Amino acid sequence: AQRVTQPEKLLSVFKGAPVELKCNYSYSGSPELFWYVQYSRQRLQLLLRHISRESIKGFTADLNKGETSFHLKKPFAQEEDSAMYYCALSRGSGSEKLVFGKGTKLTVNP
Amino acid sequence: GAVVSQHPSWVICKSGTSVKIECRSLDFQATTMFWYRQFPKQSLMLMATSNEGSKATYEQGVEKDKFLINHASLTLSTLTVTSAHPEDSSFYICSAGSGSSYNEQFFGPGTRLTVL
Q1: What tens digit of pLDDT does each residue of B48-74 get?
Q2: B103–A86 CB contact, under 8 Å
Q3: A36: which chain B residues are within 8 Å (Cβ-Cβ)?
């Protein structure tokens, strides 16, 4: 069975500091990994996906198959980055269901 | 961009009554929609996968007779909580699959259900 682990429930950093939100997964096949973000009082939205290898709002995430990790990083955090971040996994392409981690609440202090 | 709406955004009902929640994809057709439940300060738990024109696939532990799902068209899926009880109070969120090879899902704003 697929499982996604986000070890940190809460993460607090100061503005301008680097931030890393950890995500580990377990799945025997070749998964697709995603990061979703939920800003206060807003719906969940896709931040980035590993197959796109893109940087969104300064965030990047690299899939490390050896360590089964997909950590989210940003070199200089901004106050507007404060939100709930969810790592998610699906088994492959197409309309596959997502398995979510428990989420990490990021707070960026001024 | 793709937009998913939910109606109602919040509902309060008496114990024993049934409540229907609608999920619509406004500007795209979704052959697959997903229903999640989110408890306060917790993650999303997938309840079921709704496929247009066929029966929904429920996750383990989810009572299909209690949470009725209908996906009658490519833009509408409904979740009916039958004989609701206080323990069914939760935040229910739907998402619609884009059907693209990227497997992106677009989420609705959620429905807050409170059962008295």
Answers
A1: 998 888 889 999 999 999 999 998 888
A2: no
A3: 107
Cα(A30)–Cα(A50) distance, rounded to whole angstroms? Answer: 12
Retrieve residue A7's tokens: 């070890």
Search chain A and give the residue with CA nearest B100: A94
Residue A93 above 60 pLDDT? Answer: no
Task: Look up residue A84 and give its two tokens.
Answer: 């709930």
Amino acid found at A54: E
Cα separation, B25 vs A64, whole angstroms: 34
Cis peptide before B109 (omega within 30 of 0): no
Q: Which 38-97 residues of chain B touch chain A by CB within 8 A? A: 42-44, 46, 49, 93, 95, 97
Distances (CA, A) of A50 to A71, B16, B41, B104: 10, 45, 26, 12
pLDDT of residue B102: 60
Number of neighbouring beta carbons within 10 Å of residue A6: 21
pLDDT digits (tens, 9 = 90+) for B17-39: 999 999 999 988 888 899 999 98
Interface probe, candidates B23, B32, B39, B44, chain A, greatest A C-beta count within 10 A: B44
